[in-house]
Amino acid sequence: MSTTKTKWNVNFKVYRKKGQNPSHYDQFTLEVDPDEYVLDAIERIWAFHDRSLTFRHACHHSTCGACGMLVNGVEKLSCITYIRDVVEDGGTLVIDPMRNFPVVSDLVVDMSLFFDRLEMVGQRQVVPVSDETIGDGKKAQSPTNGKEYLRLSDCIECGLCISACPIAATNPDYLGPAILAGAQQNGLDRKPELLQIVDQENGLWRCHSVYECTAVCPSNVDPAWRIMDLRRQVTAQRLKRLFR
Amino acid sequence: MSKPKAIIIGAGFTGVATAHDLALRGFDITVVDRGPIANGTSGRTHGLLHSGGRYAVNDKESAIECIEENTILRKIVPGVIEPNGGLFVAINESDMAYGEDFIEGCEACHIPIEELTPQQALRLEPNLNPNILAAFLVPDGTFDPLRLAMAFAATAKSNGAKFKLYTEVTGLILNGQGNVTGIKVWDRTNDERYEIYGDIVVNATGAWVGEITAMAGVDVPIRPTPGVMVAFDQRLTHHAINRLNKPGDGDIVLPQRQMVVVGTTSFEVQDLDYVPVIEDHVKLMLERGAELLPAIKNTNMRGAYMATRPLLGSGGSGRSISRTFKCFDHKETHGIDGLVTITGGKATTLRAMAEKTADVVCEKLNISAACTTKEVPLISYREFYRLPNNY
Amino acid sequence: MIQSTSGPKTGETFWLWFLKIITGLFIILLLLIHFVVNHFVAEGGLLTYADVVAYYRIPIIPIMEIAFLIIVVSHALIGLRSIILDLRPSRQTLTAINWLFVVIGIVSVVYGIWLIQVIVAKGSA
Amino acid sequence: MMSEPSRKSGISQAIRWFDPRGRDIGTIAFILNRITALGLTFYLFLHLIVLGQLAQGAEAYDGFLATIRSPIYIFGELLVIAAGLYHGLNGIRVGLTSFGIAVPQQKKLFYWLLAIAVLGSLIFGIRMFTA
Question: Sheet holding B48-49: strands in order across?
Fold first, then answer.
């Protein structure tokens, strides 16, 4: 924190909920450096203003996916969201927990069903570099020079795509973007049994091509592209079977 | 006979690994943390699965721990590790001179290394500084910090451990003799306060151990030493790239998912609960990182963050203090029974720290149960959320 | 058209989804043809009852209109059902909706065919 | 162990389909698609009922045609045409991308199709009100 820089005053309006009590918002006015991240400010609210504030966080650099939340109504990974990008000096930042997940406390949501489903489609966390695609189906460009390297997959399981999905909003049974993307990444060729999971009433066909999942994804997974790719694969399979 | 009851304070690396170890040894475990899993130093670790090469010259004790644990972790928790190896590269004459000590040190610590010509190294990693003078291949790796902790926590949970997250310890419960018999906690999710009793309380709060021991009126020699790390937006390498020299600032660049992460610095702080990211350190990381991988200069910054190492001991500066760990039985150190403190160490040695702690606990409680964590594979970290009591 | 199968598969299956897309495509094609044909056959549009009757005397028109009707009604009902599915109806509600939509579909098409037959009869009288 | 999510969601949340605050262009496309879908379905059945006039003979139908020549009805008709244009053109995009075609270009495609729909509706409107 350099002292030469101008500081901003920002009002943080934070969603609060404890136990069975009704929810409300608490206001905190903080002096912030505009180049800080939203998560830094939230951590400071906890450290210096209200020790009862609960929020999920771990890595602070977008590899763990724990700190997904709504910043002014938009799904953000708060650890890489600069304050200067979402508010102005003197402005207000409204912080809410992710949508479409049950709230446990304040900004903490229950993601057990989400992880259940990720496990169901066997979303792979460590993948061969040659298997991982960066958005749009483009191959990762990093050099491999013939050797097979393994890497942690792009999907950090933050749940932002589920929070942004309007279909998940009204139908929690819908598997949702991250899950379908996980199935696509795992591959119908590798795991033919995934067909049954994705080609069901709450699977692939519930997507209405809104593309919000891809818009909010902080990790270039491009779930919407993966859903469309999965549709293409399943459609091709179905039609082939019809004419055989 | 009912199970011996252990309370573990802290759900960072040491806490979850100790929970796993003690659960396997038949303990009834309750883990409490004031936040979620790995919300402090552990989650913000650089993510380097050390081969030990970094400490092979100046801190052989740590180096040996690292290479042993590196091998074990690759075996028991492969689902959270990028096992692609690392390179130590020399850029100037000082680095070259260090190279001799490095070879000797690695040999002494049984760290397998392979010398590469600069051409070979550049073929492996084309984004390396083209002016490197020498390179050594070592068995480094990268892990996902949160998922590494979750895998231990999940396995502990599957063996019956209970996790009370977002639950802050507000005090220790002492009996008439001044021995610790339990803890007072505040559940921050519903604002309830209650007490938990146990046969032993393990203080595994890393850099924060002093806050817990202070509740018993005692002190441990701990020097919290934060460091800054910076993540960049492109995966420029598959190997961990280390500067072939004494550990210093910004001398490691790690691949992680679609990023590279440069670290670290070393400084000291007073207030542990909020340590600001120092801007000059961020600039330094960019400069030093670019000496190893020049392409970093043309890559967008993705995030800057810091973590507070729990370094042991007093005296000496942050870089010269050993990275090893220590388990304090407060019966021996201060005559207080029922409390054990584990701190120091590195992420890579989390399992060994847990083994040591569990040994101390078993010895104190007169329980003979062998450590099996070297062999037992961990279950998927996702099971932590799927098992009941799940956030 | 809309089918209600017993058992767990009362939701949106591949075939219904596929039919929605294919009928959508056909509607676009038929509307295009409709506009072109209308432009040449009945310049200025079908502005009087007599125009309509005359239009339906062209043999292909009643067939085309019936096909169009079936396709549009299918597309509309599958689409509407798909919106209802997003609202997570209970099994019983969904089964009821399935049957209701089958009935609406059949009634609409039968009614349309009857109407076209009346017009065609007027023309040939 | 799959825990059943609460049944509370559903209709009470449907308002979120139509809330574009903070959302990307995809939500606008979706909102318009869903509104036009509902509007066109309503029109379809209204249309079928109204055409029943045809069965009642020339006077009834021509009388009906006269009433719908007033500007308010023409405007209604224009709305139907605009809705149909939008729904059809956006449908092309949704259909194509659903078969894995042009997914990376879908945003650009949307803007083009929307432009065509707006332009088409304008041309229809001018012709209908000047005829």
Answer: B48-49, B141-143, B81-82
Q: How far is B66 from chain A, CA to nearest CA, in Å?
A: 21
Q: How far apart are CA B118 and CA B236, in angstroms?
A: 17
pTM of the model: 0.93
Chains B and C touch (3+ CB pairs under 8 A): no
Does the beta carbon of B194 lie under 8 angstroms from any beta carbon of chain A?
A: no
- What is d(CA D85, CA D36) in angstroms, rounded to the nearest whole number? 10
Reported ipTM: 0.92
Spatial distance between the Cα atoms of B339 and B341, rounded to a whole number of angstroms = 7
As for how many domains chain B has, the answer is 2
Class of domain A8-109: alpha beta
Nearest chain B Cα distance for residue A241, angstroms: 36
* C77 within some domain: yes
Residue in chain C closest to D39 (alpha carbons) equals C76
For residue A1, give both structure tokens.
Answer: 């924190």
How many structural domains compose chain D? Answer: 1
> Whole-angstrom Cα distance, residue B262 to residue A189?
37
For chain A, 244 residues long, the average pLDDT of each consecutive 10-residue run is 74 96 96 95 96 97 97 97 97 97 96 95 91 59 68 96 96 95 93 92 94 96 95 92 83
What residue segments make up the domains of chain A, in order of their start?
Answer: 8-109, 112-242
Residues of chain A positioned with their CB less than 8 A from the CB of B82: 126, 149-152
DSSP category for residue A46: I
The answer to whether position C86 is within a domain reads yes
D53 within a domain of the structure (yes/no): yes
The CATH number that applies at residue D55 is 1.20.1300.10
